[in-house]
Amino acid sequence: MTAMPPPAVLPARHRPEPSCESAVVVSHAPLSPTIFRLVLRVPRICLAAQAGQFVMISVPEVAGSPIQLPRPMAIHRRRASSGDIEVVYNVHGRGTDALSRARAGDVLLVTGPLGRGFDLSSSAESLLLIGRGIGVCSFMTLVEDATHAGIASTLVLSARSDNRVIGRDDCAELGAKAITVTDVDGSSSVEALDRRLDAEFDDLPPGLIVVCGSTRLAGLAMTLAARWNVPLQVSLEAHMACGLGYCHGCAVPGTADPSREGPLVCSDGPVFQLRSDGHAAA
Ligand SMILES: Cc1cc2nc3c(=O)[nH]c(=O)nc-3n(C[C@H](O)[C@H](O)[C@H](O)COP(=O)(O)OP(=O)(O)OC[C@H]3O[C@@H](n4cnc5c(N)ncnc54)[C@H](O)[C@@H]3O)c2cc1C
Ligand code: FES
């Protein structure tokens, strides 16, 4: 497996002030036995959210037993007309299991938008977004912005099997090209994907590559970014207790000295840049 090099913080940009909203659950439906799409009415967060930002969702207690820490979730889609955001999540442990029991009409405390999102300014006429499983959810808001700006997006939607592929409907709705690859038919292997993307983009490389959800695919993205000499951004995940830069539980290893604390995923990221030669950008 390719090791992920230390990421570098993107240049500072204006960020919206986060707010805390009592979010009504508009709808909540399974996409597969363990994956759910949760629609939350949070007008202030929805209107302020930049592509790639996330929210912290306070999870309802289970059988009188409170779940203390909120859980970080990417803002998968923004629906400005209704003030709704969509979150797509996989049931992982106790918190997401409790979240999966929320019903339409319930109220959850949601804080956001949080973190630094994607930087679209460096992109040219097209984007290549490479995502694995639930990682796809971190970048669909970037596709929204790209579509709005007339920038073409091609998404690799990688998953173990076809019924776990996330984002097909969203791509169709946003007019983005989806390349679905799975472990079942072998099309998700790095070698197969490298050949496919090389054939797709070698004549006209994308202006920006974005990757999320897989160290293996991050390695491929670095190879492609070096081959085509294009910038690369990665959206990272970490255990988060606060999501606000207070607890320092989400720090990644430092660039120069791995024993020193590096950037915080919640407030310096979750989106970082990677140099295409595999080192952190300056
Ligand atoms: C920015 C971001 C976006 C994400 N987006 C999505 C998404 O769109 N969809 C999705 O399915 N998942 C997403 N995740 C992952 C998701 O947050 C986790 O799967 C979820 O928190 C797991 O919670 P759990 O209680 O089910 O699992 P558990 O593993 O039982 O609990 C994880 C929780 O334990 C706590 N915790 C454990 N270790 C530590 C530690 N060292 N320091 C601090 N707290 C700790 C934290 O509260 C953490 O959230 C995202 C994560 C991040 C950071
Ligand atoms: S989660 Fe607390 S500092 Fe990042």
CATH superfamily of the largest domain: Nucleotide-binding domain of ferredoxin-NADP reductase (FNR) module
Strand coverage percent: 25-35%
User: Do you know the CATH architecture of the largest domain?
Assistant: 3-Layer(aba) Sandwich
Q: What proportion of the residues is helical, as a percent range?
A: 10-25%
Tally the structural domains: 2
> Total number of β-strand segments?
16
Backbone shape: globular
- Average pLDDT works out at 91
Written as H for each helix and E for each strand, in order along the chain, the element string is: EEEHEEEEHEEHEHEHEHEEEE
Looking at how many chains there are and whether they match, the oligomeric state comes to: single chain
Distance between the termini: 25 Å
Radius of gyration: 18 Å
Which sequence of strands runs across the widest sheet? Answer: 1-16-13-12-9-10-11
What does this structure look like?
The chain has 282 residues and is an alpha+beta fold. The strands form 3 sheets. The protein has a 7-stranded mixed sheet with strand order 1-16-13-12-9-10-11, with helices on both faces. Strands 5-4-8-2-3-7-6 form a 7-stranded antiparallel sheet. Strands 14-15 form a two-stranded antiparallel sheet. 19% of the residues lie in helices and 31% in strands. The mean pLDDT is 91. The protein has 2 domains: 96 residues, Translation factors (Elongation Factor Tu (Ef-tu), domain 3); 158 residues, Nucleotide-binding domain of ferredoxin-NADP reductase (FNR) module (Rossmann fold, 3-Layer(aba) Sandwich). Helix 3 links the parallel strand 9 and strand 10. The structure holds flavin-adenine dinucleotide (FAD) and FE2/S2 (inorganic) cluster. The site of FE2/S2 (inorganic) cluster (FES) has 12 residues, from loops.
